[in-house]
Amino acid sequence: MTGLAQYELQEGDGGSVLKLTGPYLVSTIGPIDQDLRVIEGDIVSVDISGVSEIDTVGAWLAREVASRLGAEVSGAGDRAQRLLGALEDIEAEDDLSAPRLPVWSRVPEALGEKVFQLRTGTYGVLSFLGALLIAAWSLIRNPRRFRMVALVRQAELVGVSALPIIGLMSFLIGIVIAQQGAVQLAQFGAETLTINLVGRITLRELGVLMTAIMVAGRSGSAFAAQLGTMKLTEEVDAMRTIGIAPMEALVIPRIMAAVLMMPLLGFYASCMAIIGGAVIGDLILGIPFWTFLSRIQEVVPTYDLWVGLIKAPVFGLIIGLAGCYHGLQVRGNSEEVGIRTTMSVVSAIFAVIVLDAFFAVFFTELGWG
Questions:
Q1: What angle do CA 161, 162, 164 make, to 5 degrees?
Q2: 72-74 and 43-54 as β-strands: parallel, antiparallel, unpaired?
Q3: Rounded Cα–Cα distance for residues 330 and 197 (Å)
Q4: Around Cβ 335, how many Cβ atoms within 10 Å?
Q5: Is 303 exposed, middle or buried (0-12, 13-18, 19+ CB in 10 A)?
Q6: Of 18, 44, 108, 309, whose CB neighbour count within 10 A is largest?
Q7: pLDDT digits (tens, 9 = 90+) for 291-347
Q8: Three-state DSSP state, 9
Q9: How far apart are CA 364 and CA 338, in angstroms?
Q10: What b-and-e string marks burial along 128-162, b requiring 16 or more CB atoms within 10 Å of the CB?
């Protein structure tokens, strides 16, 4: 094959000779590299007189083959002699990997890097919040610049498109809560309290919390991926060039859509969970479907509904901020899009759960326990 390195075995009086021909360069020896490394037999010489071009990699390969077979390299020209001489003191068995630091050095170093990254990330989030507030104030002063079409489009993607999956998820969660709750309460002869359990836990906690987790995984990741791709393809820079503020055109509509849709989705999820509980009550507990729903109004305090509705927009704000912030932090290559998308979902879910714990304590101290 023309232009590639070749070899052949020639029989001689004192033994076989491995004759190398053609260019022995890093770009040409790939097809025969493995073949040369498995050659066996009584070979007395590796002849490189037929090599038209050679570089360091080619010289290394010829030297290693000769060393493994116990042969000598012959027919080397001036360039080949210089390369073989430079490689003479280098052994293939040398450990080329960096030394591994002991664990008592690695752990503090890694911890310090994480703390430094936390500080840098905090500065970045504060800077993003400042830019967001400036953009919001600018829109308040000039409301005609607000992009209503973008808000409606994002509201459709965050809210309307999520109705089937959130409804199904919440319905199944209601079934699980009712079934498992009834099993435990049956030990005390209190199966009818399943209504209280399903109503309070879904309206107050699980309805909005599971909705927030679903929206974070569905819409928050979409925000990060969309903005990250736009940043990577320089669309964001192009918008700045033509006088369009990315915060006003891209970020604010997405965050507003998440804030506005979360209360509606949370209430919808709670209703679907209650319906799931009512189905189980009718089929297993012997509580008629409509009796289950009417009892919900009697046993669930009104403030449980308000607790869920108050938490929902805050969760939506956190999800929108996390998705947009990480999307605009994409740098360098497409791998960064995936990394930032993952970070947006993880940080949003973590923040939502932590805030939910604070809300639980706050509303309990407020008397809405």
A1: 95
A2: parallel
A3: 44
A4: 9
A5: middle
A6: 18
A7: 998 889 888 888 999 999 999 999 999 999 999 999 999 988 888 999 999 999 999
A8: strand
A9: 39
A10: beeebeebbeebeeeeeebbeebbeebbebbbeeb
Q: What are the backbone angles phi and psi of residue 77, rounded to the nearest 5°?
A: -80, -175
Number of residues that this document lists for the chain: 369
The pLDDT value recorded for residue 1 is 46
Handedness of CA 24, 25, 30, 36 (dihedral sign): positive
Q: Which helix (H) or strand (E) holds 7?
A: strand 6-11
DSSP for 38-105, written as a single string = T--S-EEEEEEEEEEEE-HHHHHHHHHHHHHHT-EEES--HHHHHHHHHTTT--TTS--SPPPPPHHH
Could you tell me which of 320, 321, 322, 340 has the C-alpha nearest to residue 330? 340
Spatial CB neighbours of 9, under 8 Å, sequence gap ≥ 6: 16, 17, 18, 19, 39, 41, 43
Structure tokens at 330: 């994409």
Q: Report the DSSP beta bridge partners of residue 10.
A: 17
Q: What does the pLDDT read at residue 68?
A: 79
β 43-54/16-24 pair status:
parallel
Helices (H), the chain: 30-37, 56-69, 78-86, 103-141, 148-158, 163-185, 194-201, 207-215, 221-232, 235-241, 246, 252-280, 289-299, 302-328, 334-365
Query: Which tokens belong to 134?
Result: 């400036």
3-state secondary structure of 279: helix
CA distance 258 to 123: 24
Global confidence as pTM = 0.72
Would you call 147 helix, strand, or coil by DSSP?
A: coil
- Alpha carbons 354 and 348: distance in angstroms, whole number: 10
d(CA 352, CA 339): 20
Q: How many CB atoms lie within 10 A of CB 165?
A: 11
Nearest CA-CA partner of 130 in 325, 326, 352: 325
Q: What residues in the chain have per-residue pLDDT under 70?
A: 1-2, 12-14, 89-98, 369
Contact present, 82 and 72 (Cβ < 8 Å) = no
